[in-house]
């Protein structure tokens, strides 16, 4: 009451609502004017508008006679834009930058609370605004200058090059045939940014006529800012109570609140978050954090929140992985959405991300290549999945970002069991979709064991080992006595059955297995190398061939090696042995090659037939076997490509992986001739 007495009412003003310019009145906000341009007496050369977009372009004249105007700079800009020649298409016909274009943008999306007011003779007349547009300088003339510069450079380059060079410049063209567009694809295309920009560009400009401030037409239009009837009957909107009147002047912005996505990324404070229902709070938090322990979730929801209600709500939007909650895939990728990287629909993205989550339920580490091979998704999508819930480790893979939450697992076994059943159902779906192999389904060490190893003292380990030895001692003793008895019986039978067999004493070699004799039928049941012997004199005795048989074996082996390398040119030892076994299978029983060919004999014969071993520097982490790392090549085949082949083999003896252009340049340099694509392909093949 004291404040009201100190601040008395000085004057009461009648307020009127003018409707003549309703949905026609715009407020233009000009930038700070330069010294060479005054908006009071400036000349508007042209104006145009796109009504649907509420976009305006104004072209204003610049006072070139103003002392603040830099004439040399204006001439330089006009020269860069239009060049030396002037025609109707020139931007600046006066060879001087004498005008400036302004382009508008919307200053506010909701202007229902703004109005233009005119005060006259103790009356305040309000006209609601239909739009507020901010005018900014447009620099499209700079783009035109750049285009002119590029055209001049292209013309200069085109003049230096000959017509023959232009004809030789052949470019590969990829031809694609478009498939019929589905309804879902059409909706995505209509909602795309590119389509909206195209629609906006298609709207035609409506050219306007500008009237100055003191023009008679402006004076006439300015009268529409006043209310046409002052009677209260015509202004029934203002016959309201004070609270209703304020509500009309400042209505609640419902549209703006609905337009804001309910997410912390839209500057949603924790105070605003806690005003939402509990289920919405949990969904928003999980959608933005993606992986969270239950304890952290409870701390974010505030004190007094019921943990049971939180558990009930979090299971609707998240899944349990290693004791932590990970947001569900369908929450991140709603229906009818697609990947920003590849355009893959949300259903495929959800399956791929579910596979990554399921892999983390099996192991703490996941390999990115394995995920990409199974899901067949692009690397960017796979990387997004992994970044949601894991951290990359060099030379190891992707590790789950949070430690195993053992406390939650112990406190809530019923929740854990229910989540395990859900994962079993997800696994069954993934098996059908991706045709998962056993190596994908076999679970590795459980996270609880890897994250929290059991600590055992040294004394306990010794006692455990002693107990294990005592337990297995009896069984080991029986097996030893049995083997000892078998060895004695074998020695006795060998002395009585084959007294004249000479044992070849030499170091045991993997490459030269000992061949059994045809005379020791009691030991091998009449089999030599798994085949029935033919005539006795042609078979080896203790690995030694009879006199004339050695030459025949060498000839047969040499013929096989020569014919094989003339067909293949380059072979690994593993592949050569496979081909030799196939050759043996095609031979009749009793053939000389059945006498037993060791790896060393085969390799020596390869070198004797004019082949060379190529020491290819394979990477140390390769999974190939030793036989696959031994590479042999025919050095001279007697054809026209011997020299090219030798150069190519020298290249691969320095690096196991070489680019095609390097090979072609090296062949041309070493051989002194340019090879075309077909010749290079023939040498490589």
TrEMBL record:
Compositional bias (Basic and acidic residues) spans? 146-155
DNA-directed RNA polymerase III subunit RPC5 C-terminal domain location, by residue? 444-685
Q: What residue intervals traverse the membrane?
A: none
**Region of interest (Disordered), ranges:** 146-169
Gene Ontology terms: biological process: tRNA transcription by RNA polymerase III
Q: Which GO terms describe its cellular component?
A: RNA polymerase III complex
InterPro entries named in the record: RNA_pol_III_Rpc5, RPC5_C
Against Pfam families, the record matches this protein to: RPC5, RPC5_C
Name of the molecule in the record:
RPC5 polymerase
Native species: Oriolus oriolus (Eurasian golden oriole)
Q: Gene name, please?
A: Polr3e
């Amino acid at each position: 009451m004291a404040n009201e007495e100190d601040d008395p009412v000085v004057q009461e003003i009648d307020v009127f609502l003018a409707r003549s310019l309703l949905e026609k009145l715009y407020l233009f906000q000009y930038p700070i004017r330069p010294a060479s341009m005054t908006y009071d007496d400036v000349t508007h050369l042209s104006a145009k508008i796109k009504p649907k977009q509420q976009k305006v372009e104004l072209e204003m004249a610049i006072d070139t006679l103003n002392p603040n105007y830099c004439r040399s700079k204006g001439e330089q800009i006009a020269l860069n834009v239009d060049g030396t020649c002037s025609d109707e298409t020139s931007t600046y016909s006066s060879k001087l930058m004498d005008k400036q274009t302004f382009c508008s943008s919307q200053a506010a999306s909701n202007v229902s609370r703004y109005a233009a007011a005119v005060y006259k003779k103790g009356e305040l007349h309000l006209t609601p605004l239909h739009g507020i547009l901010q005018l900014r300088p447009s620099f499209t003339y700079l783009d035109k200058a750049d285009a002119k510069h590029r055209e001049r450079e292209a013309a200069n380059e085109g003049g230096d090059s000959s017509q023959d060079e232009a004809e030789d410049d052949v470019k590969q063209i990829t031809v694609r045939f478009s498939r019929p567009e589905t309804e879902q694809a059409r909706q995505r295309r209509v909602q795309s940014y590119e389509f909206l920009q195209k629609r906006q560009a298609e709207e035609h400009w409506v050219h306007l006529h500008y009237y100055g401030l003191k023009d008679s037409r402006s004076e006439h239009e300015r009268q529409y800012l006043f209310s046409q009837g002052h009677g209260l009957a015509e202004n029934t909107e203002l016959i309201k109570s004070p609270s209703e009147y304020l509500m009309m002047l400042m209505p609640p912005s419902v549209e703006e609140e609905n337009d804001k996505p309910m997410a912390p990324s839209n500057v949603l404070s924790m105070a605003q978050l806690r005003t939402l229902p509990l289920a919405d709070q949990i969904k928003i938090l999980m959608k933005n954090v993606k992986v969270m322990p239950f304890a952290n979730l409870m701390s974010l929801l505030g004190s007094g929140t019921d943990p049971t209600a939180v558990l009930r709500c979090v299971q609707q939007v998240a899944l349990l992985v290693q004791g932590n909650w990970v947001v569900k895939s369908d929450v991140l990728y709603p229906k009818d959405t697609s990947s920003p990287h590849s355009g893959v629909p949300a259903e495929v993205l959800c399956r791929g991300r579910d596979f990554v989550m399921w892999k983390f339920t099996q192991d703490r580490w996941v390999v990115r290549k394995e995920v990409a091979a199974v899901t067949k998704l692009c690397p960017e999508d796979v990387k997004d999945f992994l970044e949601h819930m894991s951290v990359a480790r060099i030379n190891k893979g992707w590790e789950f970002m949070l430690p195993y939450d053992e406390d939650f697992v112990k406190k809530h076994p019923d929740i854990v069991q229910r989540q395990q059943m859900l994962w079993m159902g997800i696994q069954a779906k993934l098996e059908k979709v991706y045709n998962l192999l056993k190596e994908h389904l076999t679970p590795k060490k459980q996270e609880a064991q890897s994250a929290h190893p059991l600590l055992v003292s040294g004394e306990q380990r010794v006692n455990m080992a002693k107990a294990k030895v005592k337990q297995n001692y009896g069984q080991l003793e029986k097996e030893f006595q049995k083997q000892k008895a078998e060895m004695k019986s074998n020695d006795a039978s060998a002395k009585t059955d084959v007294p004249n067999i000479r044992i070849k004493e030499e170091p045991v070699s993997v490459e030269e297995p000992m061949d059994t004799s045809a005379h020791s039928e009691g030991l091998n049941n009449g089999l030599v190398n798994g085949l029935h012997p033919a005539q006795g004199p042609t078979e080896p005795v203790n690995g030694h061939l009879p006199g004339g048989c050695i030459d025949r074996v060498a000839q047969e082996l040499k013929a096989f090696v020569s014919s094989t390398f003339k067909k293949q040119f380059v072979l690994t030892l593993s592949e050569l042995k496979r081909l030799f076994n196939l050759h043996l299978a095609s031979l009749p029983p009793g053939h000389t090659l059945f006498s037993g060919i060791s790896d060393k004999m085969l390799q020596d014969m390869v070198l004797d037939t004019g082949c060379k071993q190529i020491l290819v520097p394979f990477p140390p982490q390769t999974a190939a076997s030793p036989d696959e790392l031994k590479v042999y090549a025919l050095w001279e085949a007697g054809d026209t490509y011997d020299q090219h082949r030798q150069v190519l083999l020298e290249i691969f003896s320095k690096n196991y992986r070489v680019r095609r252009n390097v090979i072609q340049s090296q062949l041309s340099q070493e051989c002194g001739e340019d090879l075309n694509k077909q010749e290079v392909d023939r040498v490589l093949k």
